[in-house]
Amino acid sequence: MAGTARPVVLITGASSGIGEAVAERFAVDAERRWRLLLAGRDEERLGGVALRTGGVGLPGDLGGPAGVERLAARALEREGRVDVLVAAAGIGWAGPLTRTPPEVVERLVAVNLTGTVQLVRLLLPGMVERGVGRVVLVSSMAGWAGVANEAVYAATKGGLLAFAESLRYELAGTRVGVTAVLPGAVDTPFFAHRGAPYHRGWPRPVPARRLADLVWKSVVRGRDEVFAPAWLAGPARIRGGAPGFFRAMAKRFG
């Protein structure tokens, strides 16, 4: 993606879960031989991922402007450019909105939405100037359809979808692409960290490595939208074409 030079990918949330799996998938792409910049909050785990993948760990917190600006500056200082950003950092919280502590609301919005938007804002000018690049935003089906007792989380992920769609219009003709990734449940420590385990018998969580492979393919093939598993595109279309029916089914089986 950057001429004959090895392309540079910055992956947030790389210390665990989806981000870790994405780092491992890019690391084995022998054809492109990506230079990996890995961002995450858990410095010890991030160091282990960097060691396994040959990447460079950039520990920090994207929950505030200073952390975002520091990450962007360190990434550009290290490599001079970022060709692909995979924004996989995210946190969750389960419970009724009326019982959600205000500090949890602020933290969810800051990490899942604001931090990502600000990071894209800082890295996008270089991509546009060079005429090449891709932004990959890991959203969720929760952001498309909504989920009971995850209203704030769903709102942040829905914000990423609107952000992705808006950016596509802005970037038309620039050769910079935007990918929105919409997974259902993914088999990662996410549910343990949010304080509530995944309780549904169906659909089964997608393996993180499977999702990571889809993310990688979306970059090398230039896809704008990725559902994981793929059949989730069907319910998404029903939600758009027959919202009343979709909501009735969601209430019945949710």
From TrEMBL:
Keyword RNA-binding applies: no
Pfam family, one: adh_short
InterPro entries recorded: KR_dom (IPR057326), NAD(P)-bd_dom_sf (IPR036291), Sc_DH/Rdtase_CS (IPR020904), SDR_fam (IPR002347)
Signal peptide: none
One cellular component term from this protein's GO annotations in UniProt: membrane
A Gene Ontology molecular function term of the record: oxidoreductase activity
Organism listed in the record: Streptomyces roseolilacinus
Family the UniProt entry places it in: Belongs to the short-chain dehydrogenases/reductases (SDR) family.
Segments forming domain Ketoreductase: 7-189
Keywords assigned: Oxidoreductase
The UniProt record lists the keyword NAD: no
Protein name: Oxidoreductase
PROSITE patterns reported for this sequence: ADH_SHORT
